Amino acid sequence: MDLVTFGVQLLNAVQYGLVLFLVASGLTLVFGILGVINLAHGAFYMLGAYTAFWLAAATGSFWIALVGGVAIAFVVGMLMEDVFVRRLYGRDHLAQVLLSFALILILDEVRLHLFGKDVHSVAPPDFLQGSIQLTDTLSYPVYRLAVCLFCLLVALAIFAVLRWTKIGMVVRAGAENREMVRALGISFDRVSRYVFAVGIALAALAGIVVAPISTVYPGMGDGMLILSFVVVVLGGIGSVAGAAIGALAVGLTDTFGKVFFPAFSSVSVYLVMALILLWRPNGILGRREV
Hints:
- This protein is mainly α and 290 residues long.
- It has helices at 3-34, 41-59, 62-83, 93-115, 142-164, 166-176, 178-183, 188-214, 220-235, 240-260, 265-279; strands spanning 131-133, 139-141.
- 74% of the residues lie in helices and 2% in strands.
- The chain has a two-stranded antiparallel ribbon with strand order 1-2.
- Strand 1 and strand 2 form a beta hairpin.
- The chain is globular.
């Protein structure tokens, strides 16, 4: 493999890892802060892509699809937290798994009735449709570079909000001791609603930005959900920074595994996960519980 090809594969790995981080960050916020296992998280990734297809076809604008899709996902997340998820706080994980699995079936049925079983495509913005010529035979799509930059900016925004804002301080405090937050007079119920809605919106956002790359098809969120759980476990449950490290590790392993070990690429991610958990049973940035 020459240096240019290696650089292209590295960019693909980083782009995949950053998109995976968007999905996994929402999952780790919901799981680590609210204590809810949301198996329907991948379904919202898929619905985000389908919403982007619908809005882009109706308006002819990718940007309206991007903003509108995230807004719709945020509202749907708030409604679902109020109607369903709120009743799971403090319940055992079996109840959470059963309800979230039921949501998967419901959302998939909604997708079937609204969009059918066809595969759809979403066109990127006009100025991002070209390619950068690297060699005489090798080029790299501009849109993939834009996805890398956009996901990186969103990741920095997530870290900035959690680190330097009041709402971020409340979220971090709630992750440590929810009852103490309530004792200080802070309505953590409202915070929980927003945290769940933001988690859903991040999953939908990832589906929207990936739609022009991977197309839109039924079941596209299933594999992303499994890898998101791998990222959450690798990084440490509840750690957004750990999720970022885990997502990049999964992106690099999956991309270069398909290049160097194509026969074992399907198990390479899980092999790396097993090795890391042998070294850090609570995840890379996970903390031991005493």
